[in-house]
Amino acid sequence: MTTPFVRTAPSPTGYLHIGNARSLMFNWLFAKRHVGRFLLRYDDTDQARSKPEFADAIAEDLAWLGVVPDASVKQSERIALYDGAADKLRAAGRLYPCYESADELDRKRKRQLARGLPPVYDRTGLKLTAEERARLEAEGRKPHWRFLLDWEEVGWDDLVRGPSHVDCASLSDPVLVREDGTYPYTLPSVVDDLDMGITHVIRGEDHVTNTAVQIQIMQALGGALPAFGHHNLLTTASGEGLSKRLGHLSLRGLRESGIESLAVAALAVLTGSSEAVRPVSSLDELAGLVDLAHVSRAPAKFDEHELETLSARTLHQLDFATVEERLKDLGIPASEPFWLAVRGNLARLSDARDWWTIVEGPIETQVADPSFAAAAASLLPAEPFDHTTWKSWTQAVAAETGAKGKALFMPLRQALTGRDHGPELAALLPLIGREKALKRLAGEAA
């Protein structure tokens, strides 16, 4: 295989959502798996809707996911290249001017539908004489420019779907240049893919028809075709498509709510594939699981509540080195024993703050039976404590008091932590220490 050079091309017109993460992670992981390169390309030619704050948010979202682009470009800075490509297509007779307004085109489509015809552009603009074009422009009309498609079947071997084809006779000639001289997505995408040497274009299946069009444009420009892959789209459990209006599923919203980025990445690419959705410990591990040939053709439905569970399961298996700096950012100068003790009881990393407070104190204890607590305190071994201390201590307390099961363990947990549930006390007791444990058994805040 040619060393892959892939790209993601988000529009900075809103916040990325988990559906966008599916496509960009497929590209990133493909490059990682095959030791390739990854380009972040901002599709910002729509200057009216593109905002710097959204471009900044995209970079932040990628960093949160652990995605580090090998290069980054903005299409708004490459307009001269698109102008040159448009001129080349005009000179070759593949780009022709059209003068219909949006309303006129809409009425034309409705008439075609009413007659049972496909709403395909009838190439009126192609039939205009030089005199007719001059007259329209004298009236103040400015042309938009359409690419003249060859009415033939275009095929390719899709990385996901296998042999694929589109009959271009069923398509309208696409608009490549608007009336105001600006460019929709199609031509800049083609020009950049060719100019930058993109080897693999991996994107959602909603681009299948676009691919047939872009192949023809690439061929008209004399460029080498990349490989194409079209994965199924991520939808909600009800089948609703994802969009930037679903703010709670934006990557920014998920990050702010404390969802683990590895869980987002895993759910985004494992849903709708032959691999079960499960926690991963790193992007390297995830890259080893993702194979485009194993992506299903069926819709990739996910339950957003599954993300909560997956995030917690992901957190539970993270090692201390992975979270140490994040814990410090939360104000927790924690140690590996603390992390190993509490991680299995966390839904969010931020929950660790509560357990750090419980370990360090002071806390309000719950001593329902002072005599039982006093007996337990008298049997508490001398330090140092280790993972065996809890077992030997509770055995001694059981022998002395006759308490068993919940009657033995619950009063001790409540006195030591102020909680009815939580991490194993065999791990917590050495962290709490003998001095604080004795005070808490005596009903003192410590």
UniProtKB/TrEMBL annotation:
Highest taxon in the source lineage: Bacteria
BP GO annotations: glutamyl-tRNA aminoacylation
Subcellular location as annotated: Cytoplasm
Gene Ontology molecular-function annotations: ATP binding; glutamate-tRNA ligase activity; tRNA binding
Broad class of enzyme this protein falls into: ligase
Cellular compartments per GO CC: cytoplasm
Keyword Transcription annotated: no
Main location: cytoplasm
Keyword line: Aminoacyl-tRNA synthetase, ATP-binding, Cytoplasm, Ligase, Nucleotide-binding, Protein biosynthesis
EC number(s) reported in the record: 6.1.1.17
All residue ranges annotated as the Glutamyl/glutaminyl-tRNA synthetase class Ib catalytic domain in the record: 6-308
Cross-referenced Gene3D superfamilies: 1.10.10.350, HUPs
Catalytic activity: tRNA(Glu) + L-glutamate + ATP = L-glutamyl-tRNA(Glu) + AMP + diphosphate
Domain Aminoacyl-tRNA synthetase class I anticodon-binding per the UniProt entry, residue ranges: 375-442
Renumbered ranges of motif 'KMSKS' region: 241-245
Chain span(s) of sequence motif 'HIGH' region: 10-20
Binding site for ATP: 244
Short name of one Pfam family: Anticodon_2
Subunit text: Monomer.
NCBIfam families: gltX_bact
Free-text function comment from the UniProt entry: Catalyzes the attachment of glutamate to tRNA(Glu) in a two-step reaction: glutamate is first activated by ATP to form Glu-AMP and then transferred to the acceptor end of tRNA(Glu).
HAMAP family according to UniProt: Glu_tRNA_synth_type1 (MF_00022)
Similarity comment: Belongs to the class-I aminoacyl-tRNA synthetase family. Glutamate--tRNA ligase type 1 subfamily.
Protein name listed in UniProt: Glutamate--tRNA ligase
